[in-house]
Amino acid sequence: MTQMRLAYVNVAVSGLDRAVAFFRDRVGLALKFSDTDFGYAEFDTPGAGFAVVRDAERAGRHTGIGFAVEDLDAAHARLLEAGVEFTRPPTREPWGGYMAIFADPDGNTFYLDQIPAD
Q: SS3 of 61, please?
């Protein structure tokens, strides 16, 4: 049996240009491709690909998507300074994790995780 791997995730947004500006300029992801007519933009993220797709009906959800960083406190401070809204500050989890939750302009929420080294 062939093992599956996660290749990409797409997040629904109501405004493509606004989402591109948020993830590029505030979160700091490098933009790979954007097509306003098609309503799709992809960012350069190591591992699985990350993209936004214009679909206002499906925007504004908890995505379950986590972005990993080496230093959560530093990343949290940088994103706050860039104007990113956090719905939950950095918190130590009972299971050992350290994470925060932020929202994009549509209200889609994302984890920001400091993943411990193995």
A: coil
Residue 58, SS3 per DSSP = helix
Please report, as a single letter, which amino acid is at residue 51.
Answer: A
Per-residue pLDDT of the chain (118 residues; tens, 9 = 90+): 788 888 999 999 999 999 999 999 999 999 999 999 999 999 999 989 999 999 999 999 999 999 999 999 999 999 999 999 999 999 998 888 899 999 999 999 999 999 876 5
Give the H or E element holding residue 19. helix 16-21
Amino acid at 6: L
| Centroid of chain to Cα 58 | 16
Contacts of 111 (CB under 8 A, 6+ apart): 64, 65, 66, 67, 99, 100, 101
HSE-CB at 72 with a 13 A cutoff on CA atoms is 21
